[in-house]
Specification:
This protein is of the alpha+beta class. The chain is 15% helix and 26% strand. Strand 14 (207-213) and strand 15 (217-221) form a beta hairpin. The longest helix is centred in the C-terminal third of the chain and has 20 residues, at 294-313. It is elongated, with a radius of gyration of 22 Å. 43% of the residues are buried.
């Protein structure tokens, strides 16, 4: 079987695509990429559809070895480089595609600049689909490799044993990953469970992401919200981005692996256009919230999709990395003449 051998897994990477939002009515959490924008850009660099299965990385990347004739990969969402090991090794920048041959070993180090990044592979990672998705959901052990995080020694199966030679491409515009400003929120569905002063404070104060954070959600630290109708409700549906507030009044931002129903009131929901930003948050990051309307949220989603398409449309040709074959393909040695010329 062709694949990428996991020499060292790093910090619990998982295989993710766009998840299973269509089966939440069956009690199956959506899962999928925490940052679908980064996933789409990574996949576009290697010629895949936006939702092809890729490796989602957090905190520390893996060391991988190519066990296929050739692969094309792209690391997106971080400034960390692909560190090719061996005598002809060296760093390969993120946010570009690169082709490696059999036996190439490369490492991705610490991801200090983001909460999440993606390594896409041309053709995608070829694990079986469960409910129409290859995404890993570790709590129920479905998707990915045996429903768990990738570990040392695994072989990530690839859809292709080889990839063709072509000019490599890069993503020069990284503004999409630097978006700042308040996280936008639509109030509800249980905002009436909170005092007006609490809701005003939610949009006026700063909150900090705690270390209690995983793919399910992020607990925030900041001004507590006061419940005026108790902190328990009859369990109802939850969507990604919901802001759930348990009895201690500390908000929880729910991410891709959130439960499908819950019994704490939800003061609001982060709009889908800002959900990718939630995936990039790290412990210690500070955030503020801004209330907007449903109509404004819909417009923001359309703007995000248009902006992402524009980023992909403006990919540029990338230079060759220090690989002899690539150097000749790029004609970087043209102009060298012999003594008889």
């Amino acid at each position: 079987m062709s694949g990428l051998r996991v020499v060292n897994a790093g910090f619990a990477p998982t295989i993710q695509d766009l998840g299973r939002p269509h089966v939440q009515h069956l009690g199956v959490p959506p899962s999928g990429a925490l940052d679908p924008v980064a996933l789409a850009i990574a996949n576009a660099l290697v010629g895949n559809e936006p939702g092809a299965a890729a490796l989602e990385l957090r905190v520390m990347g893996p060391t991988l070895e190519v066990e296929a004739e050739s692969v094309r990969v792209a690391l997106v969402g971080t400034v960390a480089a692909l560190e090719v090991q061996g005598e002809r090794g060296g760093p390969v920048d993120a946010n570009r595609s690169v082709r490696f041959g059999r036996g190439t070993k490369f490492r991705i180090g610490g991801l200090s600049d983001t909460g999440v990044a993606y390594l896409a592979v041309e053709g995608g990672i070829d694990v079986p689909e469960i409910y129409g998705s290859r995404a890993t959901y570790t709590r129920s052990q479905i998707g990915g490799i045996e429903g768990r995080a990738v570990k040392d020694g695994d072989l990530l199966p690839l859809a292709q044993d080889s990839v063709g030679e072509r000019s490599e491409i890069k993503c020069p515009n990284l503004d999409w990953a630097r978006v700042s400003g308040p996280i936008r929120v639509v109030l509800g569905p249980q905002d009436d469970f909170f005092s007006e002063e609490s809701i005003a404070g939610l949009f006026a104060e700063t909150y900090t992401c705690t270390r209690e954070a995983d793919r399910m959600g992020i607990r925030l630290d900041g001004p507590a919200l006061s419940h005026v109708k108790g902190h328990d409700i009859v369990s109802d549906g939850i969507v990604t981005g919901a802001i759930q507030v348990p009895g201690n009044g500390m908000p929880i931002l729910l991410l891709a692996d959130h439960q499908t129903t819950g019994g704490y009131p939800k003061v609001g929901t982060v709009i889908s256009a800002d959900v990718p930003r939630l995936g990039r948050l790290r412990p210690g990051d500070e955030i503020r919230f801004e209330e907007i309307s449903v109509e404004e949220a819909q417009a923001a989603r359309a703007e995000l999709e248009a902006a992402t398409a524009k980023v992909i449309d403006r990919f540029e040709r990338a230079g060759a990395w220090l690989d002899e074959a690539a150097l000749y393909r790029e004609n970087l040695v043209s102009g060298v003449v012999g003594p008889m010329d």
